[in-house]
Every structure is written in structure tokens, then in C-alpha cells.
Amino acid sequence: MSDSENESSTATSVALTPEFDRYVARVDDDRIPASTSQTFGASWDDLKRGFAQRELWLTLGWQDIKQRYRRSVLGPLWITIATGVMATALGLLYSLLFDIDIKTFLPHVAVGLILWGFIAGCINEGSQVFIANEGLIKQLPSALSVHVYRLVWKQFLFLLHNLAIWLILLAVFQIPVGWEVILAVPGLALLVANGVWVTMFFGIIATRFRDVAPLLESLVQLLFYMTPIVWMDSTLKDRIGDLGNKAYLAEINPLYHYMAIVRGPMINEPVEWRSWLIVCVLTVLGTLFAMIFMRQWRSRVSYWV
After folding, report:
1. What is the CA radius of gyration of the chain?
2. Which residues, 6 or more positions from 170, have their beta carbon under 8 angstroms from its beta carbon?
3. CA–CA distance, 104 with 174 (Å, rounded to integer)
4. Which residue among 114, 148, 155, 188 has the highest number of C-beta atoms inside a 10 angstrom radius?
5. Among 283, 285, 261, CA closest to 272
6. Could you tell me how far CA 71 lies from the centroid of its own chain?
7. 175 touches 184 (CB < 8 A)
8. Contact, 137 vs 207, CB < 8 A?
9. Integer Cα distance of 241 and 254 in angstroms
10. Can you say whether the dihedral through the CA atoms of 183, 184, 187, 188 is positive or negative?
11. Residue 286's closest CA among 196, 207, 209?
């Protein structure tokens, strides 16, 4: 065997040793920069870049409403009419069943339905937000949060349309509102902020696991009856005997507190300070939780849709 063949054989044997493989891997790792796509900084940057593109999602959100009611005479007013009819029907029915003054109960139900429309929309439509925008996600080089802001903005527009019902009830029933009504503004801001993280969280989960969306629809329907919308916790405390002593269990439902901080100032109902505290804590924890999911799986959404 020639010297050249011996050298070649020696080099081959060295290349096949575990020590050589570890050396090559170490050299390669040193040359490859660390990935920054799965960091909290990248998740926060996505939220900031998405918000900076507000001209895009503001336009798309408004366009969604116009497209939904295209060729309709009343257009988005159908949203208000449908909500008003349901609030009136449920308000009259349950006020008779529970023997509650209609002047107190109807505004409670109406504002509750208005807020519930926003909450349910962020959960149900939020679970489909990335699936519905498959084409844009694959073709448009924008932040993933753009689609989340777009949906939350659309739901907020629906809520603003329905506030006309609240104004009508204020005039009809002469509901006294003072400076406390201003507290509804930060309450709405917290509600919108929670809508963002809820949409992002359920959007990512439901995109990966397609059975989550129908499961959420059933869960939202259950939560509707567990949340004081067509019933009042004060009714449980005052009129249902021993069961009234357990009315505090209704406060275990987080949505109870979201309703309270917005609806209370709007219809002149007292709001406990702990409701504000609970909502603020849940907002922070929910945002952090959603950012964890963004850090881990945000980059994979475009492959899942």
C-alpha cells in the first residue's frame, strides 16, 4: 500500500471517530448565531410591530364589517337591532320570572349582552383568526399580531354600534349617571387588552389543534349562563333563601368581574374594588401566558394554517 493510500485511510478513520464528530459540532455551533425567534423580546416586538401597522388593521377591520353587510340597506345597524330585540325579550321575560323591576333589570341585561358580544366574539372568532387569514399570513410580510388587532378592532366596532341601545335606555328609564360613568372607559380598555391576549392565545392553540374551536363554542355557551347577564347576583342573595348565602360563588367566574367594572359605571351600579384588582391581575397574567405561547409557537403558525 502506498504512502498516499495510508494517509487517506488514516484521515478517514480519524473522521469517523466520536471525538472528531464532537469537534466538528462544536465548531459549527460556534459559527451559527443563536436564534432570537423564540424569545420574549421577539414576541413583544411582534406585538409592537403589529400595533405600528395600525393603518392596515384598522382598514381591514372596517372592511370586514362593510363586506359582511354588503348590499344591506341598514348595514351595521342590524347588529344593534338584533341585540336590542334580544335584550328586550330576555329583559321582559326574566323580569317577570324573577319579579324584578324592569327599569333595573332591562339595562342590566342589555349592557350585559353588549359586553358579552365582544367577549364571545374574541373567543369564538379568535380561535379561527389565523385559519381565516391563511392567504395573508403566507403572502403578506407583516407581524402575526396584525390579524389579532384586526379581529379585536372589528369586535370593538360592533360594541360601539350596540352602545346606542345603552343611550336609548338611559333616556327611556332616566337612569342617573354621574362622574362614575367615566370609569367605564378604563374598564373598556382592560376588556380590549384582554381581548388581544385571548385572541392570540386561542388563535395559536386552535390553529395547531383544530378540535379546539368547536370545543370553545360549547364552552362559551356554558359561560353565558354562568355569568350574570340574564340574572343578577343580588337576586340570588335577596330572594332565593339559603341559596342566596352561596351567591358569592358567582364571583369565582372571572367574567363576573369583567362585566362588573364596565357595566357598573354605565348603569349606576356599585363596583367592588376587588373586581378591578382581579381584572388587572388577570390582564397581566394572561398577557404573559400568551407571550409564552407566542415565543414557542409563533413562528410555526404559517406552517399550520
Report:
1. 27
2. 107, 177
3. 11
4. 148
5. 261
6. 30
7. no
8. no
9. 25
10. negative
11. 196
How do residues 224-256 score in pLDDT, each as one tens digit?
Answer: 999 999 888 777 666 555 555 566 777 889 999
Distance in angstroms (rounded) separating the CA atoms of residues 81 and 210: 33
The C-alpha cell at 238 is 335577596
Q: Are 160 and 76 in contact (CB under 8 A)?
A: no
Sign of CA dihedral 106, 107, 108, 110: positive
Are 261 and 276 in contact, with CB atoms under 8 Å apart? yes
Which residues are CB-contacts of 91 (< 8 A; sequence separation ≥ 6)? Answer: 102, 105, 106, 108, 109, 110
Residues 6+ apart with CB under 8 A from 300: 208
Angle 284-287-293 from CA coordinates, rounded to 5°? 145
Cell 394572561 -> residue: 286
Give me 197's grid cell. Answer: 391576549
pTM for this entry? 0.83
The half-sphere exposure of 238 on its side-chain side, counting CA atoms within 13 A, is 8
CA pair distance 135, 305, nearest whole angstrom: 9
**Residue type present at position 135:** G
Q: Where is average pLDDT lowest: 32-36, 77-81, 109-113, 150-154?
A: 32-36
Q: Which three cell numbers stand for residue 119?
A: 367577549
Cα separation, 185 vs 188, in Å, equals 5
Q: Domain residue spans in the chain?
A: 38-302
Distance (Å, whole) CA 271 – CA 169: 20
pLDDT at 41: 81
| Structural contact between residues 109 and 92, judged by C-beta atoms closer than 8 angstroms | no
| Alpha carbon distances (Å) from 101 to 106, 107, 184 | 8, 11, 24
Q: Is the pLDDT of residue 186 over 90?
A: yes
Where residue 122 falls among pLDDT bands split at 50, 70, 90?
very high
